[in-house]
Amino acid sequence: MQGNLLTEVFLPLALTIIMLGMGLSLTIKDFKAISIEPKAVLTGLFCQLILLPLVAFGLMYFWDLKPEFAVGVILLSACPGGPTSNLYSYLGRCDVALSVSLTAISSFITIFSIPFLVNYGMEVFMGEGQYIALPVVKTIIQILIITIVPIIIGMSLRNWKPNFARQAQKPFQIASGIFIAIIVLGAILKDRENVIPFFQETGLPTLTLNVLAIILSLLIARLVGLNFRQSSAISIESGIQNGTLGITIASSSTLLNNPTIAIAPAIYSIIMFITGSIICYLYRMKNDV
After folding, report:
1. Considering the entire predicted model, what is its pTM?
2. Architecture of domain 33-144+171-288 in CATH?
3. Which residues contact 203 (CB under 8 A, 6 or more apart)?
4. Which residue in 254, 255, 221 sits closest to 236, CA to CA?
């Protein structure tokens, strides 16, 4: 009963609050960035929506992981950037407007790409007949309800009540951080007797994916001629994923209903906070010059 309460009530509610908080920080102007800085936005979307899943599939193909863990890595790579990426971009003196735009746009696009990428991942790593396919239409609708609707509500509040939205941003950011920590810890502690084995089995693969995403996206952004503030924002956006959404999809009884798949997104979420803090410090030194 407690497990059902966590996965069916707390997880969706927490994610809704996190995304509502993100919506409070967004305006229509953020979405206009694609026409103002098309190269930067398209490069960021390529790194996050195409490069990251490709790297994840490549790593999992050669890494001998338990099938559910491999699918969890694929699920994590298919998720959009997390709201935390905007905070790291701000602290790292990166291009915050670009970071916010990428988070918002990727959140819309991945509504449709997640079910297809995850189903393909399960087919490759779990084998036919060994899994319950992620229902495409139901997944799209559920992700829409718990991510995009709150973003739209938050943006509407920002437009209609700008003073309220500005005052509410900090409390929502604090609440989001607390919820993310609770969700990640909850996903791990649910099988607390296996925490060390989980880290031993998924820690290095998820760290490798995270580091490769950060480095490769930075290199690609620089190669196409973007400045360092833009490139560092894209790098952070590609490495800081919405692990909360991945855990929710894996744990929900109406979607994958497989808590084991949620382990990799949970481990990745812990690792990305550490690596994110390191690169945030490094980028800040570079961008301050």
Report:
1. 0.84
2. Up-down Bundle (1.20)
3. 267, 271
4. 221
